Amino acid sequence: MIQFDNSWARDLPGTFLRVAPDPAPAPRLLVLNRPLADRLGLTLTEDQARDWFSGAALPPGADPIAQAYAGHQFGGFSPQLGDGRAHLLGEVVTPEGRFDIQLKGSGRTPFSRGGDGKAAIGPMLREYLISEFMSAVGVPTTRSLAVVATGQEIWRETKLPGAVLARVAASHLRVGTFQFFAARGEADKVKALADYAIARHYPDLAQAENPYLPLLDAVIARQAALIAQWMGLGFIHGVMNTDNMAISGETIDYGPCAFMEAYAPGTVFSSIDHQGRYAYANQPLILGWNLARLAETLVPLFDPSQDKAIEIANDRLTGIAPRYRAEWLTVMRRKLGLLGEDDGDAQLADDLMEAIQGSDWTLTFRRLADEATLRPLFNDFKKMEAWLPRWRARAGYGAAQRLAAANPAVIPRNHKVEEALTAATDGDMAPFHALLTAIQQPFTEAEPYTLPAPTGFGQYVTFCGT
Ligand code: AMP
Ligand code: MG
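That is the input. Now the predicted structure with adenosine monophosphate docked in place:
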């Protein structure tokens, strides 16, 4: 049983369309996240999971809807996107809060434009893996409840087996949701969304005399902290469009994302990101850019005087870069095993970035305290020879244990993800489950998952996964 309570459908009329998922013709459960189902208070058999999370049957109480949203995609505004291949089944209320249960890849909706509404097994399992890893290392993220193969073939560059992902999110309210209504001049809807966001994600703000500026501040704070955590992990989202930025502060929409191996700030994996807009080192800039788009939609709520409202908004936007920098420094202190705060920490971290160009991002931090295993990661160890004594002096006693607790040994390395998804597409789920087990205990050494890609894996490219 799933006890639904559908506040979006109830409280936000005019922001969605009612539409049922396509029934999968021959559903087969590929993976079910039983611990997550338990945490959400769901009681279901595997057969129910297979049917409910593939659209083959609607769980009682579901009220499937497709949400409207717009978005800046690679900098250009699309006034109408919306759930073109996703259906929000409803929400569940747990002691930890309210969560959406959404199907992705579950068929066409009025927002599908030219798309088929479907998804392939590979990209849905990729989202499952990466989101579960993010959760395991404590990064705010949507979760994955199940992936069900539909038994239907879909066409991409070639014929591929189709699948549906059941996704769990604090909500699917995006920057782009606000943009959709702001662009249409529907100020009442923008206000209704802001009130909904406050009630659901920032309830402490509800008492404020004007809660909308604090709302912007709160989203800035959560998103700055989030992107700093991504940077610490070497995570590259790949499509940081405004429709893929959640008001809750969770990482959302794992498409052509991947983890950087050798440290290079310009790293891009996505085949569609020709300009490198969403390159690793650009993510903090895009954070500010996207939040400016959110601020624009809220400006009328800040102050009756437009000039004053814009001034207030601009002031907040100027604060994003220093805020992010502070969050990044917090992340780096942890990654470097530093206790407390020292004025020299920022310089120490910046100098490390200079010294580790080209070495494995993940293992470098993991091995800082062990020069014998650190050295082989580098082609040129000169800068590290100068840097390490400074770090040792600052980090002091117990640094090795702190490094091991702060820096994962296992990340979803691209060659291992690719191997797992290729096998799954060919019907063999064993590599997927082995990788999943390893990334769910990311601080435990687990060869071969710990090791960088063999030379010859080449320049990794991810595809949009549509
Ligand atoms: P995404 O790149 O997954 O963030 O999606 C961007 C937009 O394209 C959203 O409005 C999606 O619903 C839509 N979309 C992506 N893939 C498909 C598809 N296969 N069919 C219909 N709409 C899609
Ligand atoms: Mg999206």
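Residues 81-85, 111-112, 115-118, 239, 243-244, 253, 255, 464, 466 surround adenosine monophosphate (ligand 1) (CB under 6 Å).
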